Amino acid sequence: MSRSKKLIRNIFIIILLSLFLIAWLGLSFTPLSVYKKVERGNHFGPSQIVHIEDYKNNKFILGRYDRWVSCSNVRRALLFFWAAESVPITIENDNNKALCYTWSNYNPMFKVHGVINDEKIKKVEVTLSNGDIISQTEFYDDLFLLIYDTKIKGDIYFDSIRAYDGESNIVFESEY
Length: 176
Hints:
The protein is an alpha+beta fold.
């Protein structure tokens, strides 16, 4: 076999092995394709993407499917690929509550996301176990997403959540 044929054969083998490795690791070229793969793997969706939040090398993707709301975290991997950082956290919207939410702590990030069912709510505020307060006043449709970096501060957990109307009256309150 000539050198050129061996070179072509070896390049072909390297390309096939690379594609197999990329598929096995769950890598994709875009964050949205990772999001779709994760949804299929969890038998969820396809959901309507409401908002994409860039945070450091991550993207948080808020989606809605029927009466369910999900938030997936995808991260940049191997220079130009994307991979799922964590399993999407999904909640069912209960229209009888003013606010439906869930939280997760996936080091080094803490996130709270949910859906607002009461149109009077103008601000969502979360108190963490270390006393820090994070809040949001701009919503995506009726969804919200709060992210907190715990890398510097250590183990931090959810303590309470409050929702306020335009006059700073508490509309919803819940403690962990």
